[in-house]
Design goal:
It comes from Caenorhabditis remanei. Its EC number is 3.1.2.6. This is hydroxyacylglutathione hydrolase. There is one protein chain. This protein has 9 helices and 14 strands. It has helices spanning about 40-45, 60, 65-70, 150-160, 180-190, 195-210, 220-225, 235-240, 245-255; strands at about 5-10, 15-20, 25-30, 50-55, 75-80, 90, 95-100, 100-110, 115-120, 130-135, 140, 145, 170-175, 215. The strands form 3 sheets. Strands 1-2-3-4-5-6 form a 6-stranded mixed β-sheet, with no helix packed on it. Strands 7-8-9-10-13-14 form a 6-stranded mixed β-sheet. Strand 7 (about 95-100) and strand 8 form a beta hairpin. The longest helix is centred in the C-terminal third of the chain and has 15 residues, at about 195-210.
Length: about 260
Amino acid sequence: MVYVKSLLRRTDNFMYIVKKNAGARKAFLVDLVNEENYQDLAEKENIDITAVLTTHHHYDHCGGNEGFRRQFPSVPIYGGDERVPALNQPVKHNQVVELADLKIRCLSTPCHTSGHVCYFITDPSNESEVPVVFTGDTLFIAGCGRFFEGTAPQMDTALNRILKNLPDDTSVFPGHEYTVANLKFAAYVEPRNPDVAAKLQWATEQRENGAFTVPSTIFEEKATNPFMRVVESEEIQKKVDTNDPIEGMAKLREMKNNF
């Protein structure tokens, strides 16, 4: 399957190493959080870095881009926003690129920022392999990003028209380790959802044991993420006093902001 190594940076930011399989040398990185020695990282991980994918321009997702460019001047940096530092490969919605023997479909998901991009990764040599998606600050496990530069209709499109329609088994790798807090909110707005209760218990144990909660799957998100369940859940509809997905999305985000 597509190999992903999750690296925690700062307090709760994820940077990812991605390659075709565990033994492959060709790799790319997703979201360079910090200025660091990426040449040392490449040597330590026994990889050849062929590209960088940046989900959005916030510093905690691209703070290492300029330093990386100085260390690897010929390696492309992809992104969907001209504000991404050292960007030299701008991408558009549904654009497909091939890197490290993998296929990357770029998904424009504006809202958290106007130029936010998620990256859907498959192995073109084996379509039966489980795909992965890097969702930055659009889709978190059991949550979503704040609407800093966008609107509820945009986030509804991102979550419930684009990401929700990816294959159920797609592994979801978000930009932050926010899972426990997000599931506590999910349990508040949908207290009788057994999937939420079970995942909250699991995630709490994971973090207490020093383990990550990534990845999730699209299937799990459809079962536990309140921002993807306004239409499906009467309990959530009662909590937000509407069955309209857009109005419900807006009310949930406001509730979460103050939770």
